[in-house]
Design goal:
Radius of gyration: 17 Å
Largest sheet: 8 strands, parallel, barrel
Distance between the termini: 13 Å
Oligomer: single chain
Strand content: 15-25%
Structural class: alpha/beta
Bound molecules: 2-phosphoglycolic acid
Number of helices: 10
């Protein structure tokens, strides 16, 4: 299973380094057994110091966003080349906090995906419906709408070998709220995601991985991990506490 810690904008570099040290202590052994992949995603300013600490460990570093453009005149953005130089193997794109606060579109997210893939960085593409869409039973429609630009970009791409794409299903109403969709619903959604991704892109040998995000905690990790198709978690708040993060990984294997 894959466990991605999304530290959002919660930590200064000093705090990110302290937390990384604690996490390395707890996780290096687990990660080395290859049963799980642990990825830490600090904010941009903490990427370099955290990457240095992770260098000789089995944990990986990922970014929370990237620019879709080549290095150049794009004030306030961060290039994929920089992420690559720092050693990022993963990059979260399309997080709902970016879609909502920065009005990022699914087309822009698809562009970022292509750029990441061409730099051999695995994109972690977040998709998910808001509370009203969930109530109106529109989840599948919204997920498909968010994935269609991804599919059309993948169909057009000339990139020869695409190793892995991670899709993080994160219901917006579940992020940071403690609310979790029920099991029956999640079983249906993960089945649906697998079906549309593998069927639509059947002529490309892409390894799709589907993970869940939204209020993942040690108290629900075991149940969530047992849902067919759930290959890991994107963890926000709970990943800021090394003990809680460790419990999530531990309970996911019970
Ligand atoms: P949460 O955040 O675990 O705090 O709900 C998840 C996320 O936004 O990726």
């Amino acid at each position: 299973m894959i466990f991605i810690a999304n530290w959002k904008m919660c930590l200064t570099p000093t705090k990110a380094v302290k937390l990384t040290d604690k996490i390395i202590e707890k996780f290096d052994a687990i990660s080395q057994q290859k049963i799980s992949r642990i990825i830490l995603c600090p904010s941009f300013s903490s990427l370099l110091p955290v990457a240095h600490l992770l260098e000789k460990t089995s944990l990986s570093i990922g970014a929370q966003n990237c620019s879709a453009f080549e290095p150049g005149a794009y004030t306030g953005q961060e290039s994929i080349k920089t992420l690559q130089e720092i050693g990022c193997l993963f990059c979260i794109i399309g997080h709902s906090e970016q879609r909502t606060l920065n009005f990022e579109t699914s087309e822009q997210i698809a562009q970022k995906m292509t750029q990441l893939l061409s730099h051999k960085i695995t994109p972690v593409i977040c998709i998910g419906e808001n509370a009203n869409e969930f109530k109106d039973n529109k989840t599948k429609f919204i997920l498909l709408e968010q994935l269609l630009p991804i599919f059309s970009m993948l169909k057009k791409t000339t990139i020869q070998s695409i190793q892995q794409i991670i899709i993080a299903y994160e219901p917006i109403w579940s992020i940071g709220t403690g609310l979790i969709p029920d099991r029956t619903f999640l079983v249906e959604i993960f089945e649906y995601l697998d079906k549309i991704c593998t069927q639509t892109m059947s002529n490309k040998s892409i390894s799709w991985q589907f993970i869940y995000g939204g209020s993942v905690k040690s108290t629900n990790a075991q149940e969530l991990a047992s849902i067919p198709g759930v290959g890991g978690f994107l963890i926000g708040g709970a990943s800021l506490d090394s003990q809680e993060f460790e419990k999530i990984v531990h309970y996911s294997y019970l």
